[in-house]
Queue: 2 jobs
Job 1
Amino acid sequence: MKTIKDLNLCDDYLFHEVMKDKRLVIGLLETVLDLKGKIQDIKYVEGEKTIKGGYTGKGIRVDVYVMDDELNVYDIEIQNGKIQVLGKRSRKYQSNMDYEFLKQGQSYDKLKKQYIIFICTSDPFGRGLYKYTFCNLCKEMTDLELGDETTKVFLNTKGYKGDVSNELKAFLRFVEQSTVTQAEGTDSDFVKALSERVEDVKRNEEIGGDYMTFEEKMIELAEIRAEEMVEERAEKLAEERAEKLAEERAEKLAEERAEKLAEERAEKLVEERAEKLAEKLLEENLNNTVRQIASNMKAAGFKTEQIAQICGLSLDEIELL
């Protein structure tokens, strides 16, 4: 388990504590969004705020949630490791943050600018940029903006190309190596201020104690979640096994039923065929017997008309005997 002195700014706990300083939040926003001197004040900063999605919607957990004096909204998130659905996750953040504002009774036209910023320790899109900025533009006319005033920014601490300020590059390097040495190696006043705050946090015994409690709680929650995942996995495997057995049993029953039906059908066809053959043989034998009787009567001198009347044969048939 890391001690608080081992943490970097990319660790949620340290980031949360450092961003309690409004001055640094403003500095970060101005650096990332190229808004130097444009953010005069922050009305409130809520770290680790849960924003509900309305009705039974799933809530989201935000690291730093900021609203400036013009009611523009900023959400800053630290993302460690690679997240496959980061784009769709940003969409969820946007919708929930809009709901948070609108549930207060505001109309759509009162929605202010919204910025969602992800600070990623792995390249979210694999293109090597320091910063990826997304706004809604018309596909057919790229100079035509939708006007929803939403911006999503993904920062890449592993970036190596793109037209960004030296201050932003220095900040991105500091995120994963939050040391005094790293800060002293840059000309960025903002990064140096961050470094001072980081060191203050790490020296604070009360915060250090809270961190230990936090880590213990996280480990406990992780263990609980691991047990839940084991149970969920076991249940899923059991369901899959039961489903497979059911399918196998169903297939076997279907085969047995099909075989039985085939046997019954074959037996019925055999009986029908036998009856037809028996009728045919009987008819053939009967015809042969009648012809033999007629032949004997003809040989005995019976008249043709008599033979025809008695045996039911035609005169031509009798003549051929």
Note: The two ends are 116 Å apart (CA to CA).
Job 2
Amino acid sequence: MLVKKYEPTFGELAVMYLHHKRKGDDISRLRRWLDAFGDKPATSIRSFMVEEIMCAMKKEGYKPATIARSLVVLKAVYNRAVRNKLIEKNPVARVAAPKFGNTLVRYLTEEQEVRLFEILPERLHPIVIVALHTGCRQGELLKLVWGDVDFNAGSFLARDPKNKTNRRVLMNSTVQEVLLFLPGQDVPAAPVFANTIGGAMARTHLSHDFKEAVEKANLALFRFHDLRHAFASRLAMSGANDRTLQTLLGHKSQSMILRYAHLGPTHLWNAVKGLSKFSRRKLERTPRGFHRKVKTRKCLIKNGVPNRI
């Protein structure tokens, strides 16, 4: 008698994936797939079925970037199942993600920053100030504990960031001043940014309260992550070079910081203007266009020999 091999459902694979991965946005991105495929055998899902869901999402007004990120999570569920030998291959590996441009940079002007802090709950002021002055991601700040803060070195350790590599983050005087007034410093394992009872601040509560303040301040489409963009944008407008931006943001590739290349036009203009010193001849406008104006020097004849002065 042949024993039929057990085939997990997509829902079971999704649960196992979430159990070993950060929850965060993955839960919301998986919800659409779970509604459609949750009780179906995982290997019965076909590319055209996924594409139909993606088309439906587009008609409902979802942006290409949102659809693409949802597809990334779907593929990640299957890839993990393949690595664990729960299935032989990823049946949706060939589904193409919609193309989109992710180059929009949102940053705060000084007036907008003042307006935001006037509305933002005071308990959120410290984490928002630190985000603006370090460029840290929300997850990095929420995981920060006092044992990773070194006031003597003027830095703290950002653990488990997006690129899976811990990094040292520099603290300027503003960041140090903010942190020095926060409680719990005598407990190394205590969260730096705690809730009202001393536990770690919840990502959902932070996102909700920040979004509410943004809406009241009329700062449309500004997210907590855009504080990171604000940090980088201000550095760019202060004249920081690409290598500096890459290091301070913790990016492995310079391609991620190209979105800030258009910022700081004053500094770029000054750099270009500096080229003028290499040209000693001035331009003269004539009816036939611009031409170099050459300074002529008088020539005296002395003893039959030309002598320029």
Note: The longest strand covers residues 282-286.
